[in-house]
Amino acid sequence: MATEIVCGIEGGASNSIVVLLNPQGQVIATAKGSGTNHHLIGMEECRRKIAELINEVKFKAGIAVNTPIGAVGLSLSGCELENTNQELVKGLKERYPNLALQYAVGSDAEGSIATVSSKGGVVCIAGTGSNTLLINPNGEKVQCGGWGNLLGDEGSAWNISWMAVKYCFDALDNFEQPPFPMEQVWDLIKDFFAIQTQADILDSFYANFDKSHIALLCKNLADLARNRDDKLAKYIFERAGTDLAKSIAAVTKKASEELINKPGGLHVICVGSVWLSWDLLQKGFVGYLHNETTIEELTLLRLKTEMGVGAAFMAADRLNLKLDRDYSKNYDVFAVYVRGNA
Q: In Å, how far from its chain's centre is CA 129?
């Protein structure tokens, strides 16, 4: 029955993924779409995209579009405030009454934590933007970052790309010289943006600003660091690793003993494409933990289940719905930090 189906949507600034789960926790349909951060696209456009995604995945599962499913979990970038979350749900119910019977809304970070535990944990998101969130077993939340490109996003693909451009601009202006030569990075930037001069890039950063597009430069920088051993590109990723360690250390100060004393220490779910460059982040990350914190042990996890599953789990937990799950199947350990082994 459709009323037993739980939907989960994991939405970021650039992409969104929706899944449908049956009561046994099995994924019965999936679909993908563009970003659903209402701060970037507006509340009404966010609702429209959510409805479009849900109706698409209903169709794939053989559920009539005008038949409401049991519940939807919305784990979306930009959904950190309860009042705007309720505004989002209110509009969905009014404009799209046949989507679902119930909703649960939280940030993209909350859905990631729900993928591996119903008792809280830590997630560090480093994709287009960045955000680190701790949820203690008692429900207390502690956040570091997640404030967008003007007020945060350290360690993100956007921030890595911005640092590369800024180092080059400062060098070309004779304002400040970067720690390493910038010629290869500047050539890469000119190729990426199809420009010849500094002034040519201004349109991409102002009149036609597209955070997600600029963030794509990060992948090219990673290739430059690995394939051509560019020291400035490697240094930028090292700085990003330091920033991600800083954000994790910041929330760890408020973590419960139950989370800290788990085998392997505090478990951190690492989400986002920047974490795929762990080989480039590791030096700065480990160096900061070793030199600037008292953290004894951390275990870094990478999710391996479909994105959106955590959002469905979050909905089931909040709304007391039946949804079977085996958390151990949803993640892999990709790194362990132990003080003294660094």
A: 7
User: Token match 């499913």: residue?
Assistant: 69
Write the DSSP symbol of residue 264. Answer: T
Tracing tokens 């809280």 back to the chain, one arrives at 120
In tens digits, what is the pLDDT along the chain, a chain of 342 residues?
778 899 999 987 778 999 999 988 889 999 999 889 888 889 999 999 999 999 999 999 999 989 999 999 999 878 878 888 999 999 999 999 999 999 999 888 888 888 898 889 999 999 989 999 999 999 899 999 988 889 989 999 999 999 999 999 999 999 999 999 999 999 999 999 999 999 999 999 999 999 989 999 999 999 999 999 999 999 999 999 999 999 999 999 999 999 999 999 999 999 999 999 999 999 999 999 999 999 999 999 999 987 899 999 999 989 988 888 888 889 999 999 999 875
- pTM score, whole prediction: 0.85
Whether 142 and 252 have beta carbons less than 8 Å apart is answered as no
- Structure tokens that stand for 340 in this block: 């003294």
Q: Work out the angle at residue 7's Cα, subtended by the Cα atoms of residues 328 and 26, and round it to the nearest 5 degrees.
A: 45
Other Cβ atoms less than 10 A from the Cβ of 324: the count is 11
Instruction: Provide the residue count of the chain.
Output: 342
- Distances in whole angstroms, Cα of residue 164 to Cα of each of 29, 168, 239: 40, 6, 11
CA atoms lying within 13 Å on the CB side of residue 158: 24
Query: Which residues 6+ apart lie within 8 Å of 170 measured at CB?
Result: 176, 177, 178
Question: CA of 329: how far to CAs of 26, 97, 154, 304, in Å?
Answer: 12, 35, 30, 8
Closest to 107 (Cα-Cα) out of 47, 36, 58: 36
- Helix (H) or strand (E) holding 282, with range, is helix 278-292
Tokens of 224: 């430059």
Q: Which of 299, 312, 309, 314 is nearest to 329 (CA)?
A: 309
**Locus of tokens 């954000």:** 247
